[in-house]
Fold these 3 entries.
Entry 1:
Amino acid sequence: MAQPQVTERPEVGAAPRVVGFLCDWAVRSEGLLNPDGTMRDLPNVTLILVPCSGFIKPAWLELALRSGAAGVFVCGCPMGDCLNREGNWIVEDRIDQLRKRLQRQKIDPERIGFLAYGYHEQLAFVEAVRAFVDKVRRLGPGEGKRG
Amino acid sequence: MYQRLIARLQSWTLRLDTWIQRVYPQDFDPLYYTGGLCNLFLTILVVSGILIFLYYEPSLEGAYASVQFLTDHVPYGVIFRGIHRYAADAYMVAILLHLFRNWFTDRYRKARDAPWISGMFLLVFSGLAGFTGYLLVWDERSQLLASMTVQGLRSVPGMGEWLVRLFLGGPGVSDTTLPRFLFLHVGPAVTLYVLLWWHYVRIRHPKVWPPALWVLFSVGLVFFLAAALPATSGRPAAPGARPEGFPVDWFYLWPYALARWIAPGWALALVGALIVYGMWIPYTMPDDPSRVLRSPGQAVVIDENCTGCELCYYDCPYNAIYMVPSPYPGKSRAAANRKLLAVVVDSRCVECGICIGACPFEALELPRVLERDIQERIRQGAGAPAPVS
């Protein structure tokens, strides 16, 4: 019997602070969160539930990065399944624009993530967030407040 | 009990999506395009229907013969007939998928009762057009269906005879009957387009068409069925014939299959009851006010910050925001010289908050999910010292 492989993750310093937005209609949030709104599996990730991913202002993502988060992501419903028909396409578009804008201000666009997972895809969602956190960790600490 | 059932059905519907997405990419899931598929099959029906119409003769003697002529002697006539026949079935399948999916995934809530009600009307008229299509062939099945319908209509209290006259175009089957049936087939089909306008009118960028490959697949499927299982007529209708059974098309003729167990009048009443219940569905499950994120309140324009930039107007998926000439200048610097002001139309707003995401000027809010609180939580999440994992 082969021993179960333990995947090594690069441990670069402390876990980075990450803020995530989750559409209330996308991944089921029961059992996903601690009472303080952080994720149970990844306590360095704060999840904010919103009525629709289209509700999210790009300015909020920028605010998260400016106030010290190393990364910020949005999770909407599977593309094409938005309850409000267009919310996740719209927010994906807005994130693209925000990435370009932030790149001009020397903020790595990789720090903004966009995910799309359905009601039953909790495990895949947590894995995707984990991968995003690892990516952000490799990018180093966040920008913090400017000036 | 009912709520638990609906919640369970919602869960199953979404589980089905998860399975489909193991095979297809997310935005290629056919269940995301059931409305587009309905429209596709309706288009196929209209095109093939016009071609059949060119050969159809609506008269007692000529109807059956003209359909036979189309089938046997017109080049590819049997294919056109088959396409019309199988596209009609596929259309009903797509409609029912569209209905149940939108029902189970809560897409009828709030201001979306208007698409729901118009959708029920579309279903009724589609069913009517589908049923009368079986009458036009005027074979034994048509005759049996017509006589059962007459029995059913006659048992409607008070207006039975009048309905029968309306249906047959006279007191009994006569030369005016088949033109009447033809109208009852084409009339509802034309009405569908009026109803579709109602179905789409509040929706910005409706998905009226499935992805190209699904279009090709659906058209191919219909062509394949038309060639593999050619549509045929039964024996011609004759005044004295008493046909016993008929091959049932379960999508359009199920109320007639019930006639084996209940009287046609009751089958008609059952259909009516189902339609009434369908119309009532949007009002069966009121929103749970304790779930703030499901009922965050209708978007409110913060008058003094609105600059009239129209971004919310372009992003609102339900056309719920109107830009009106600004009656007075706004208070913030950006809003001081505005020409337009956004106004949220209450009867259309579904409380999704997409306009809030569009607004760069803090001029829109959902009353129960305030921007201030979200910003506070972002700062909390981003600012406090990170725990070591």
Note: Chain A touches chain B through 49 residues (CB under 8 Å).
Entry 2:
Amino acid sequence: MSPPAPPLVRVRNLVRRFTLKGVLNGIDLDIRKGEFVAILGRSGCGKSTLLRAIAALDHEAEGSGELIVPHRLSVVFQDARLLPWRRVLDNVILGLDGPNAAERGRQALEEVELAGREQSWPSELSGGEQQRVALARSLVREPELLLADEPFGALDALTRLRMHVLLRRLSERHKPAVLLVTHDVDEAIELADRVVLLEAGRIAADVAIDLPPSGPARRDRIVALRGQFLGLLGVEIDPLEGWSEPAPERSSQTELRPI
Amino acid sequence: MSSPTIRSPRPALVRIASLKRTTLASQAKPSAGRPRRLGLGKPLSYGWVLGPALLIGLWSIGSLTGFIDARMLPAPWVAVTTGADLIREGRLQENLAVSATRALAGLAIGVIVGVVLALASGLSLVGGYLIDGLVQIKRAIPILAVIPLIILWVGIGETMKVTVIALTVFFPIYIHTHSALRSIDLKYVELAETLKLSRWAFIRHVVFPGALPGLMIGLRFGVTAAWLALVVVEQLNATSGIGYMIDLARSYAQTDVMLVGLVVYAFLGLTSDAAVRLLEKKTLSWRRTLAQ
């Protein structure tokens, strides 16, 4: 693993202290162009603090360290965070100008399969649809780095699975680097190229997810990774417990509609 | 506890007996079986007319029978004919136009100053320190108590009238806009930061629409306050306006003209409130969809 190009994101000895919550005790992390990294950890381990530091949203924090971040970055929050007083399309292109902004917004909505809902109010959409609008709002800015702070945490299990398919498809098409913060081991294995496990403000493990394309070998690897991560998270259970083999991915075009 | 015969088993027996009776002689005693309805029934669509109609009815009867002295309170139809006369002479329209101009000018100035100062004090800490404290102190002084001072400063003409109305309107506008603005969820501010919105785009897309519900509440109070202030200033050395018309009628003991003036005030108050509510519905349509 020796990337020839400089990494897109470079974090060195990052320290953050809050009076309220969240602590980082010296984080070193590189994210390459187009890489999908999941930050996994229990609540309070500092994973959101890391994301907020990279997004420059931690004005109140005291800390030190080196942080190199691309200019074009975009955040998807746990709540869709749509302005309730702006229609869906206006939410997507919020802050964009130029004559083709509306057209680009329409395309982005089409990509998240919400064509035709441009003039709806956010309150008229379901939770999954709102989160898809938030995704479109991020994608329309063509980010080099997409930061996602437990974006599916508030969704029901079925919607979450569909959102996984959508996010993976979109990230394959647009190739942004993604930093996904999650506490869901399966979500991390399912989506990421690399899982970084955070424990008490330090990186406890940095594991490349090298899944064979299909077959029992893939299944065994997932179970092994699952066991490893759960163990690191201090959950002492059979790694098959609570795990259900995901159905092989079909053409998700029709599947996604009723989120 | 007067007698030991009133104990729990006995009333129960009595109730069973009475229940039997109601089923036999159907609804002879409806209160015995079914629970009494304590909530309000279904409202009639124009039920609120009943009170005013009853009042006008009593008033008409009083006037007809001579129970109400016409010098104290003329009959309702006299008010109507006087109103018609005043319109024919052109006095009513003329005075109404003057009053409405005063009220609208004061309202416009009060709204603009209120919104601008609310934005200034809500969006910057220094602005808040400078403006908010002052406004809170000034709010504690009843506006009508300041009128003598305002007369001293700007004279007793139109400027004074518009100033007093504008000041009266300013406070509800400022207070409600400011509090709505300060209660805008911080997460939208964060969003605006991550989307790298400019200061102006932030105000246009987040702050102003977020504070608009507060502004609308302020506007409803402000409009009512504007009419109140109008009544007061028009009785101070005015030479035109509805208030002047009423004051003049008082000197000649023309109770019917005074009555017409009051009806006009009521009409103005009700229509302007309806107008603000319509505006509220239009501008806050994103909210209406929530309620429906």
Note: The helical segments of chain A are 47-54, 88-92, 101-111, 127-139, 157-174, 185-191, 215-232, 252-255.
Entry 3:
Amino acid sequence: MRDLLTTDGLGHDEATAILDTADELKRTLLGREVRKLPTLRGRTVITMFYENSTRTRVSFEIAGKWMSADVINVSAGGSSVGKGESLRDTALTLSAAGADCVIVRHPASGAPHRLSGWLAETRTSVVNAGDGMHEHPTQALLDAATLRERLGSIEGRRIAIVGDVLHSRVARSNVHLLATLGAEVVLVAPPTLLPHGVEQWPVTTAYDLDSQLPGIDAVMMLRVQAERMRGGFFPSAREYSIAYGLNEKRLAMLPDHAVVLHPGPMLRGMEIASPVADSPRAAITEQVSNGVHVRMAVLYHLLAGEEL
Amino acid sequence: MTELLITGARPYGEGDPVDVLVADGVIAEIGERGALRAPSSAEVLDAAGQVLLPGLVDLHTHLREPGREDTETIESGSRAAALGGYTAVFAMANTDPVADNALVTGHVLRRGREAGLVDVHPVGAVTVGLAGERLAEMGTMATGEAGVRIFSDDGKCVADPLLMRRALEYSTSLGVVIAQHAEEPRLTGGAQAHEGERASRLGYVGWPASAEESIVARDCVLARHAGARLHVCHVSTTGTVDVLSWAKGLGVDVSAEVTPHHLLLTDERLETYDPVNKVNPPLRAEPDIERLRQALADGVLDCVATDHAPHAEQDKSCEWDAARPGMLGLQTALSIVADTMVRTGLLDWRGVARVMSERPAEIAGLSDQGRPLAEGEPANLVLVDPDAEWTVRGAELASIAGNTPYDGMRLPAVVTATLLRGRLTAREGKID
């Protein structure tokens, strides 16, 4: 694997290999006082974030550092990017400066694909850390790692993805990866937040959350961005919360083994009630810690190849 | 004036080859092979059985001068036009400064005449600065040096229904046509690509077909109310064809164009994220291109217009959302039409003459273009080798910019000669 741009087309074996590596790394680091592996010593990893992010950038940075890579963070505000340099020039510059891997988050869908094309003749790998409304593949991988851990398996499981599917890169990456791993996915949202052409995706859809809950093994709540609330996609935050918010009553309608995921940051009280987010059924903090191991695994597969 | 004898040409690709004598800018004589007596000084052009058509007329080009001469000039665009078989082109008003006054339209006309390769007719803006707020001085532009016949805010829609109504009403006193870029801006905020499964999966903000169709429907109603002529630019959807059928059935004085790229390319190109495929309106889905082809053959769509839109390398070599929309078209249009309409049997070469020369000339009110291939008619002609093929190379096209989505594609039909009022402007792929 040279780049990780999308989960669309990521094969079952490839995805499973990344998840297995993540598990192995997690076991290896468990209980260690010094969480540092020498695996990527001498490798340079650069994060390029053109959108604000705390959790994803920090997660990648920790992943790189725990594997002894040199990690450098570039953010759009404090670099030549802010002076109007093109994405292409920035990418070629970072590659020429010695980057083995660039991890990019960008508001434009497909920006990591473009980077990958421009860097095709170099030795620099590209990891998509979230592009526009397109994909966020490492989020889907960490969600899968969490589901495997909590449910034992993904194959045949029924998973609801609830909320703003239209604008969600997390939803798209999860749809592809979960289908590849053999899960049944149902997207639950009002019609205004379901993408055009969704009937051609490997999913079913529903407008009514309550009727779905009893048969669900896991529910992934999506973040509702503030600008969507003003954009007329639904009448009010209150009505959204009444129809799609995951409250305690709805939590009780889920089977006992069912797990609650949220990619964060959460809007407590709106899309998810505080007691639900903090309940033992929620795997939200595990998602964050699994995120580090999954990103370590991705960097390992991209940069270290077979020679662990 | 020198005389030119074209030997063995097949007018409209029909019948036995004939000889055509061109003198003093007109078709002097048409006769059987070897029957014409040309003066010994006459230049001879052996057509070798190729197709002879009236020179092509493009209602929709962006020549970028004044303002973006780094991407195209009237001179370089004229070369591209001549090489593509065109003898008249209409240069859209979205230049910098905008062609919203007679000074700019006069300048464009003169620069076209200086280049002398194709008749360059400026399009005037409908509204000042294309801002959609108040009408530009259409009367001054229409009666001025350039004699502007087409007004358009192309690139932007005249979205305000009251302003569009006024523009249509006002146009009736001038005998001009309003060409609308049909895009309801409230439905296309941030839009990047055809709203469909591909855009959804790939994360592009969708440009819904209804944004085009609702404006076309509205404008047809307004044109009927005003008793005005309406021309619809770059029709891209099945629904717009339905609306146009309905309006024409009611007797609305509406004409419509389709671009070569909307006849050939689909949103499958989105998979690459390469903005060379970014264009407005966006590349649509397979059923749309099928319907557009059929509508062009049926006459619901009147003509082909290129929407030739040169862009600098840095405005395409970037992420999709940051790229400018538009693609080159002048040198590839005839080949795309040959590929999508002639090869498929939807049009014969007489039909090509209709949709690429006669109808556009009629819509624009040009009396010396799109004329029959007959004695005494102006010698605005193009000779096409229908059996030859060529490979498109962006860098080899005459435009300064190289943003062609057809780069590397092999296309049928080669323009071998273009004549503007009897003078060879292009021959064998070179400016004469």
Note: Chain A touches chain B at residues 8, 86-88, 106-111, 113-114, 117, 131-135, 169, 172, 195-198, 200-201 (CB under 8 Å).
